[in-house]
Design a protein that fits this description.
The chain is mainly α. The protein contains 2 helices and no strands. The relative contact order is 0.03.
Length: 156
């Protein structure tokens, strides 16, 4: 094989091209590749952290939701108990008021009965006096003989 000048020139040009590429082209490309790898690695790490944070946030939200449900259930139970207590109190108050009204009605009826009895006694006494006047044919003065009338009313 013949080594000629063309092969030697091409070898020198190739060596120069390799040296130039290694010196001036390859370092910026290598730096860009390393920066890109670092950016991708940082992005993946951030994505992983974001996923973990999301899971933690979901767990925390679920815990808070469960706590809120428990608190709401407790408030509802408390409100139901209060409502039941108020109904019982008002029922008792209603029963007491009813008993008081019934007792008052009985007292009024008894008072009216006594008043009617007294009125009836007075009328019976008046009729008795009128009947006695007619029987003995003389007038009896109710003012003068009030003690007789009072005894008669008391006996009736």
């Amino acid at each position: 094989m013949d080594i000629n000048l063309t092969l030697l020139g091409q070898s020198i040009a190739f060596a120069f091209f390799v040296w130039f590429t290694m010196k001036f082209v390859w370092p910026p490309i290598n730096n860009a590749i390393e920066e890109r790898q670092k950016t991708i690695a940082d992005g993946l790490a951030a994505s992983k952290r974001a996923t973990e944070d999301l899971e933690n946030a979901r767990a925390k939200a679920d815990d808070e939701l469960n706590a809120a449900k428990v608190k709401a259930a407790a408030l509802i139970d408390q409100a139901k108990k209060r409502a039941t207590k108020l109904v019982e109190e008002e029922t008792q108050r209603g029963h007491a008021e009813r008993e008081k009204i019934i007792a008052s009605g009985y007292a009024e009826v008894e008072a009216e009965r006594n008043r009617v009895r007294e009125e009836l006694r007075k009328q019976v006494a008046f009729l008795a006096i009128t009947g006695a006047e007619k029987i003995i044919e003389r007038e009896v003065d109710a003012q003068k003989q009030s003690d007789i009338v009072e005894k008669l009313v008391a006996e009736l």
